[in-house]
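Hello forum,

I keep getting stuck at the same step: I have a sequence, I want structure tokens, and every attempt I make locally crashes halfway through. Rather than fight my setup again tonight, could one of you with a working pipeline run this one for me? It's a single chain of 179 residues.
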Amino acid sequence: MNPDKKIIINGLLDRVNASPYLIVIDYTGLTVKQFTELRNRLDAGGARCTVAKNSYMRKVLTEAGLPDISEGLVGQTAFVMGESEVFAAAKVIKNFEKEFKKPEMKIGILGNAVLDSDKLRAIADIPSREAVLSQLLGTILEPASRIARVIKNKFNPDDDSAPSEESAPAEEAPAAAAE
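Reply #2:
Ran it on my machine without issues. Output:
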């Protein structure tokens, strides 16, 4: 094998082994400006978009012991990998596709599972870990927040939503006079 090809394949192998996922996209029709914008958005989310020959990627996937996704390695393909969550990368690609009608998610690998384009889109709809933790925290803190609001309303006479002290004795006065 040509030493230059071996260097490229080893670089790709290092990236694939360091990433928990791989998303294959078809970037046909993207302008250089759009492709650069996609790369920048992916970069911000902790992912990298790499263009490589499909034959090199087939060899890399075989060497890495990952599933065969040869059916998705056809045409102008780019490979998205990252060290962070797959949700962020899939969401960036999906949103970019909505905005520019390109690129198209073809196939992916998460762990050792092969994901088709529908599953990749479904993953893009899942909120990030931080969002889920934030929602969980909000749910846990809701009862305490309600109690705090009730206590504040009960003991804060300056608040308009709290019952006024003037209206309470006026209601009790006729009852006391009747006795």
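Strands lie at 21-26, 47-51, 77-82, 104-110, 113-116. If your local run keeps crashing, start a new thread with the error log.
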